[in-house]
Structures are given as C-alpha cells and as structure tokens.
Amino acid sequence: MKKLNRRSVLKVAAPLFFPSIAGAASSLDTNSSGASALATKLGPKFFVMGAWCQDPSSMPKWSARGINTQFTETDDFAGGDGPAWRRACHLNNQRMVLKATHAYDRGVSNTHLADESDPLVIAHILYDEPDLNGPSPEVMKAEVAAARALGNTKPFFVNFRNQVTGIGYTSLNPGQFVNLEAADWVSSDNYAYQGQDVYAFGDRYADDGFIGPFTTMSGHAARVLYAGPLHKAAITYPGRATFQFLATGRIYDGAPGGSPWPRMTALQYGIQAWSCIINGVSGLIHFAHYRAGSPDQISDDTDRVMDGAIAQLVAKVAILERQPGGNVLMDTARGGRRSFTWRPCANSEGGGQWAWPANQPNFGSTSGLQLPPWFEGAEISVGAETYRLVLNLHDSLAKTLADKRWGMTDVTFAPGEVKCFKASAPSVDIFA
Predict the structure, then answer these.
(1) I need a labelling partner for 138 at 20 to 30 A (CA). Which of 33, 323, 348, 356 fits?
(2) Cα separation of 195 and 51, whole Å?
C-alpha cells in the first residue's frame, strides 16, 4: 500500500498526564474491549479531535471546525515559530501535544519541563514512525526514564507507520514495538485513498492468513492497535489510548502519473472516523498537508466539503459527551475510553483486495456478537443506560439492519450513516 511517509524524527516528551495504574494488561477477547478495567496506561479524559502541524494563522479556522488539540508546532513539512504557535493555541483554547529534542538526534535530553505547569499541554511526542526511522525500544525506554527523573508526568505519544496492519514491513521489524513500554498514547498513519484503500476485507491480508471482520482500513488499524492482533505480527496496545490519522486534503505521495489521489469524500471521511471510534480510538488526528515536503506545499488543504464533514462528526461526538449519565465514549474520571462490547461486522471472504468498489466482499454467516453485513457497532454502558452505536459501512447503498439481540427489526441506514440507540428506547436514534 502506498503511504505518505512523514520521515522527520520528532522529539522527546513526557509520560502520563493521568497517573498510570499498576499491573499488566491481560489480552482482550475479540468481542470485548474492557478499556477502563484492563488499561495500564490511561488516556485523555475527553475525545481528542486533533490537527497535525498547523500554522498559527490557521488556529481560528481549526477551532471553528471543532478541533480541540494541536499536534506539534513544526516538522519537515512546515517551518514555524514555536512561541507564536503556542500563543495561538492559548488564544484559541487548543490543547497541545508537543515535540521535544532528545538524545537520539540532537544530543539534548528533555526540554519541556516547563510544560508541566501548562494545563493546555496534555502530552509530548516521543517519536514519529520509529518502525521506519528508529530508534530501538531500549533507547525510547531510557529516554522516558530520564524524562521522569527530571519530573515530567505527562504522556509520551508515539506514532507508527501503516505496518501496524501487517502491510509493507520494514527491516526494522514492527514486531519489536508490540506493547512498547515507553508509549503511553499510540497512533498509526493509515490514510484511506478514495477508491483505493478504503476497506479491509478477506484476501486483502491473504499473505498473513487473515480472514476477518469486514471494516474500514482505518478501523482495522485502530482495532489492531487497541485490542490485540487480528493477524500475525500486529503492533498491539490492549486498552491503551490509541489514535488514528485521517487525511482531510489531497494525498500526493505515491499517487500515479504525478497527480494526487482524489480527495476522500465527506461520506468516506465519516465512515472512516466512526469506524475508528467503534474500534476503540480515544481521538482522531487530521492530516491536512498537500504535496508535503515540496516548496509549494499547502499546510491546510481542507476544503468546505470536508469542513462540513468534520462539523457533523464533532456535533455527534458532542451528543455522546452530553448524555444524562455522562460521556458515552470517554471515562472522564480515569481517562481513556469506557469499556465497551465490540459488535464487529460478519467475516468477509474473498473480495476485491485493492479494487474497491469494482469487486466487493463475500460475507460468511455471523457468529458470536457479529452484526450482519454491512454493519459494525459497539455497545457501551454508562450508569444504568446502555448505548448502541451502529455504522453502515457501505458508502453508496442504504442497508437495513435486523438484529434480534438488540431488538432491532428492519432499521434502515443511509449510505455511511451512523446511529446511536439507547437500550431503554431502542427505536430512537439520539443523533436524529
């Protein structure tokens, strides 16, 4: 799979903003995600809507879109004035995940002790794509220990390349980063190109012997990170705070003929985002660069259509945050995602590999807690109420869900539509 490779090595940071709890996490069942019960690393207490490496001048626009967190003031795509970037974050009430210099590439260790007193600084970036660029897990562990000795308590954030899903392994062997001790928060680059790598199904992973639940590419990567391997050599962080990158502009890198890949549509963006949420993420990070690294690069290639798609997502997440019993997605007392029961789509067999939508998957019969095609979902208990979050994965056809266990009969979903029902009112979509 062609991928946008952010090759800059980002700088050191600090561990948990929310104190860690002792004890090792046990493996999660494929149909259960006990985030609060099993996590050894606690995540944010709000759902992170992030943007990657944006200029200070763009902060008002991102804030208006509903973005609440900015990830890093600069990398190899955009120069910038760090103090000005931070001032802009404060003016626009944007939380910050900062980079820092460290011994691996600069000979300097931990420059962000002062950020302990800044409530808008919620984490630091330890390394970007260590499975591509290094360093080793041992080096990262040593740097975390040094930072903690200096008094840092905020999380370390590590982003991995798309190898988390088992594609395009590098000589650095992603398998060595499984449950990386140095990482408190983890994410992966997994940009879905329109008409290309939008869905994951069937023989897509035949080289790994993977035949599993039909989902999106981004949802699959989120699940592999958060809940354990769906096939061999996956990078896993059971119950830990995980994030996924989503592209809001054109993707130029690796595109054929010197032209960018087509933009992901607003509908496809929504499907990817909700699939990630259903599969356990604590936040999404929007990557908006076009022709990254080129002299004429654009740092914010997000258009009005995508603005609307982000606004729709933010509005629905806000509904989940404001339920009478509390925030449906996030554990606001301990941090990280609430425990939930995963309701995956039925297993897909065969199918089109890279050729969506010309070739489509064949579905096996449902088993366990699987939903019939084309649906995936999650069941989340908050106090005395249980919420049922369900997504129609098809981006062009309406689909009807009938699931007796949820008391649903002939509930019709528009293409890419997500709905949320309460067990106490199973026919009422709280998003309607």
Answers:
(1) 33
(2) 24
Integer Cα distance of 186 and 97 in angstroms: 12
pLDDT of 359 > 90? The answer is: no
User: Which one has a higher pLDDT value, 351 or 348?
Assistant: 348
| pLDDT of residue 270 exceeding 70 | yes
Where do the CATH 3.20.20.80 domains begin and end in the chain? 32-321
Contact 342, 227 (CB under 8 A): yes
pLDDT of residue 328: 98
The DSSP symbol for 206 reads G
**DSSP labels, 363-390:** E----TTPBPTTEEEEEEEETTEEEEEE
Find the mean pLDDT for residues 193-199.
59
Preceding amide of 85 cis, omega within 30: no
Distance in angstroms (rounded) separating the CA atoms of residues 292 and 120: 27
Per the DSSP assignment, residues forming a β-bridge with 94 are none
Please tell me the total number of residues recorded for the chain in this structure: 432
C-alpha dist (Å) from residue 407 to 399, 403, 421: 17, 6, 11
Instruction: Say yes or no to pLDDT of 91 above 60.
Output: yes
Q: Phi, psi (5° rounding) for residue 173?
A: 65, 90
Pairing of strands 348-349, 362-363: antiparallel
Which string of DSSP letters, residue by residue, matches 109-167?
Answer: ----GGGGG-TTEEEEEEEE-HHHH---HHHHHHHHHHHHHTT--SPEEEEE-GGGGT-
Which is nearest to 357 in space by CA: 193, 209, 147? Answer: 193
134 CB contacts (<8 Å, ≥6 apart)? Answer: 9, 104, 172
Strands 362-363 and 283-287: unpaired
Question: Spelled out in words, what is the top-level CATH class assigned to the domain 32-321?
Answer: alpha beta
- Residue 240 has a pLDDT of 84
Residue 39 has pLDDT above 80, yes or no: no
d(CA 97, CA 14): 10
pLDDT of residue 293: 65
CA 215/CA 417 separation, integer angstroms: 14
Mean pLDDT of the 259-282 span: 90
